[in-house]
Amino acid sequence: MKKTLLLTLITVLALTVQAQKYVGGDISLLPTYEEHGAKYLDRNGQQISGGLVNYLKAQGWNAMRVRLFVDPSKAPADHRGEGVRQDLEYVKALGKQIKDAGLALMLDFHYSDTWTDPGKHTTPSSWNSNDPEVLAQTLYQYTKDCLDQLNKAGATPDFIQPGNEITYGMLWPTGHCYPDGGNNGGTFANFAKYLKAGIQAIREMCPQAKVVIQTEMSRADNVTNFYKTLKQYTDDYDVIGISYYPYYHGTLSTLNGVLNQLETTYPNKKIQIVETGYYHAWYPDDAKYKKSNFPNWPDTDAGQLQFTKDLIATLNQHTQVDGLYWWFPEANEYGLDWNTQRVTDKWYNASLFDNQTGRAMQALYELKNFAPNSAGISSVNVQKQADGYWYTLDGRRLSGEPTAKGLYIHGNKKVIKK
After folding, report:
1. Read out DSSP for 46-91?
2. Is the pTM of this model over 0.85?
3. Is the dihedral of CA 388, 394, 400, 406 positive or negative?
4. Beta bridge partners of 26
5. Which of 33, 97, 201, 266 is the least crowded, having the fewest Cβ atoms under 10 Å away?
């Protein structure tokens, strides 16, 4: 009877795919904060030990996002002062730390030396060409080389973005486009050529990874128009990624309408909020939507918490939405000498730590409610588990024996690391 039950369990582990949800944050600047000596405290004011990655995992987070620039040393000084510094060596080290902790890794290719967003997509300085064919080949080879090195470093991504916030294309000027056509001399066809080159490299080097196409909601119809136009060129991606910041993109009802339309039009695609955030202090002066638009979300700890609760309640109404990432949760200048150790040139007050006290915000602990069963099994191949490697419960292979506490698969058995 016991043997039958064991075989049944193994069969379930091998064949059953449960609905896996991912919750976490873009922690791209964490190593720099830690190197400078930032002090992270929990809600009760106790200093967090064992590293922030492991602490966030203990709070129910199961995924992290990391950005990658081509040559951030060539970024403008003000952009470097905002946190542009993630070159390949930096990302390899942080990515391995994330994977060794048993978390999913989302890699965000910026395909630039500096920030890319709806207002800027500068072609890398070393990619000195305006020939779309040459640029596509360069992007393909760069993507392939980066993923090869990440694989060898034990930092294989689980989700990969070939471009960051590409609502208006990438590799400007040749790839500059509107969501439904060309712009300023660029064309959607050129942009699609670059995007497909990146996707090809991803499929070749990381065949198990999910391809994420990220847009943002500067206008609600931009999102739907973008994917409609993209379908004329390719449907080879897995996840629709969206940036949603209410102070730039509007109310939750606007987001809800976009999600409804995407789920109806693209029922075979998963949807993830790959960037979000809300201020717990000093609401931004340049916000498109003033804080009077959000009376239930004052720029306080409690207001940030309420935003998080309301956002999660909205997202959990959508069965295709399976990912939620807070942007820049690690921002924390507490414990640093502002004159000699500062990490950025200005505080970011939508993080999940108080820059003045180092204490965690309440929203940090609320995020787990988006994925309350985030430790559930998701597509584990038991036959593969007998190869001597260690795996997380959702089938991601680690680079070695894990050091973080948790439940793992090793040698066809579930193993608890204490």
Report:
1. PBP-S-HHHHHHHTT--EEEEEE-S-GGGS-HHHHTTT----HHHH
2. yes
3. negative
4. 65, 327
5. 266
